[in-house]
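Write out this protein's structure.
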Amino acid sequence: MKPLYIFRHIDCEGPGYLAEVLGRKGISWHLVAIDEGAAVPHSIDGCSGLVFMGGPMSVNDDLPWIGQELALIRAAQAAGLPVLGHCLGGQLISNALGGTITANPVREIGWHPVRKSDTGTAEKWLAGLPREMTLFHWHGETFSIPVGAEVILENDTCAHQAFAIGNTLALQCHVEMQAPMVAEWAALYKDEIGQPSATIESAGDMTRGLDERIRAAQAVADTLYARWLALLTD
């Protein structure tokens, strides 16, 4: 099988738990380190799927690689090649497929609940998972749902937490988290959590009971990743 292309946009937001899952399953992958100046591949011919990680930038920023990634996503969607996005990655997918990226009503940072949407697509992707789950978030923007896609996860403060269309899965929340990543982000982005609120956790709150939270979140990730990876072909 050809490797996955995993796009990293900042060094602290790599594939995380997804890399563990891929290692267990013996699936090869190639890191496209945008943060180190790596070029966006010109075509999808060399890979079995595309994965886009997060980052502090906006899809609406004037950065040369954004348009290149959007074009690659559109090519993959047209060819039925599996595409997966986390946070910024999910926003890239939305925008590539005709959606818009706007400010969410509130910033959502830390551990917050999400729930299954009442759609057939949600049942397909989330069968076997509980109605409500607590996952990690770090975003101030949100995506709209492209034509033909369906919401699969939502909550009261961000209506669009995930959507799917065909072989494409876009997530606003971060299911790739590992415990060290939570502490690292809390330190690196400390200016964003200086004034905790109902939707912004302090560093102490987001790291409290962390091992248990990570285990529960990775159980959700296991289901989502397994269903997405099952779409890969030779």
